[in-house]
Amino acid sequence: MRKQMKKAISVAACAALVVSMAACGKKDDGAGKKEEGKYKVLYVSRNQADTFAARLAGDFEKYWEKTYKDKFDFDVQDSQADNDKENQIIEQGVAAGYDGIIVQPNDSDSQTPYVKSAADAGVKIITTNAGIRDIEGASWIDADPYEQGKAIAELAVKQIPQNGKVAIMSCNPGNLHTESRLKAYKDIFVKERSDCEVVAEKICTQSDQATFMQTMEDWVQAYGKIDAVLTIGDDLAKACYEVVKDDPTFAETQYYGVDANPDALLRIKAGTQDATVMQDTAELAQKNLDAVYQLLTGEKDKVEETIETILITPENVDEYIEKYIEIGIITQEEYDAVK
Fold it and tell me: Which keywords label this protein (predicted)?
C-alpha cells in the first residue's frame, strides 16, 4: 500500500487557506526573486489509486525534499480520477496564491480551460503525463505516448502467434496518453496483423483493478482462450493476468502494458508479462520541479520537453530491476524470488 503523501492537503483545506495564502503569494521583483517568503508550488495528481500516478507523486515529494525544500513550499493534492475535483483544485490553487502549479491531467480536454485560465492569471503552470500542448503561457513535460504504443505494437507484431485471438484494453477516455497508445496499437498491430482476430476491445471508464478484472472475466466467458492482451498500462495487464493465472488454458497468453511499474518488471522476469515501456517517474519529477523553479526565477519563459521511451522485455529487464533495487523501489528479496 502506498504511503500517504506527507504534504498532501485536501481540497477543503486549500479553500480554507485561500485568503491567507493569497496574501503570501508575492510577485517577482523583476530579478527572479520573491519580495518576501518562499514560492509556493502545487502538484495536482490524477489519481493516486493508480500505481503509476502514486509512484510519480512519491518521486515528486522525494526530489523536492532533496533539492528544493529551501527554495519553495510544495503541496500535493489527489483529484481521485474526478475531472470536476481536478478542475476545482486548479481553480483553488490559483485563488490560494500558488506561484506554480503542475497538473497531471485526468482528461486533457476537461482540464484545458482551467490550465489556460491559470496561465492567463500569471501562474507558472506545467502539465505532465499527459502534457497539454499549445496553451499560450503554459509549459509541458511528457513522454511521447504514441511512441510508447508504437514500441509495444511493433513487438506484438513479431511475437503474437499466427491467427491469434487478441483483446485490447484501455481506460481514461479523453486522456492523451491512453488514447495515443491505443491509436498506435490500431495503426500498427491491427493493420499489420490482419491474420489475428481482435475478439474484444474496451475503454474502461472506471480506472481500478476491479473494473479491469471484471472486463477480463467477461471476455473469458464470452470468447474462451485469448492469445494476447494489449493494454495501455501495467495495472490493466496485471488485472488480466490475475483473472486467468490458474487456468491452464491461458498458460501461453501474452500480456503487454506500459509504465514499467515495479511489479510489472518482476512479472516480466517471472515470465508472466511480455513487455512494458518505461516512462521514468523519477526523471519526470526531476524535470518538472527543475522546470517550475526555472520558470519562477525567470531563468526560462517556457518549457517543452519529451522524455525517452524505453521498451523493456525479458532481454533487458534485469538492468531495470537492478536500477529499481538501487533506488529502493524493488527489494533484492523480491528479485531473488522471481529469478
Answer: Signal
Residues 120 and 62 sit within 8 Å (Cβ to Cβ):
no
Residues 299-335: tens digit of each pLDDT: 999 999 988 899 999 999 999 999 889 878 899 999 9
The CB density around residue 278, as the number of other CB atoms within 10 Å, is: 23
Q: Are residues 58 and 91 in the same domain?
A: yes
Please provide the DSSP assignment of 78-136 as one string: E-TT-HHHHHHHHHHHHHTT-SEEEE--SSHHHHHHHHHHHHHTT-EEEEESSPPPS-T
Are 131 and 190 within one domain?
no
- Residue 59, domain extent: 11-142+281-307
Neighbours of 69 (CB within 10 A): 11
Regarding whether 172 and 33 lie in a shared domain, the answer is no
Half-sphere exposure in the Cβ direction for 173 (13 Å, CA): 5
Total domain count for the chain? Answer: 2
Q: Which residues contact 166 (CB under 8 A, 6 or more apart)?
A: 160, 189, 193, 196, 197, 198, 199, 226, 227, 228, 229, 230
Distance of CA 75 to the CA centre of its chain: 18
Calculate mean pLDDT across residues 115-136.
93
Q: What is the CA 57 to chain-centroid distance, rounded?
A: 10
Residues 241, 243, 245: CA angle, nearest 5 degrees? 60
Residue 3 CB neighbours (<10 A): 8
Q: How confident is the model at residue 54, as a pLDDT? A: 87
Averaged over 265-291, what is the pLDDT?
Answer: 95
- Per-residue pLDDT at 170 exceeds 50: yes
For the chain, give the longest Cα–Cα distance.
Answer: 68
Same domain, 77 and 171: no
For residues 194 and 330, membership in a common domain is answered with: yes
Q: What's the confidence (pLDDT) of residue 6?
A: 36
Which CATH number is 125's domain given?
3.40.50.2300
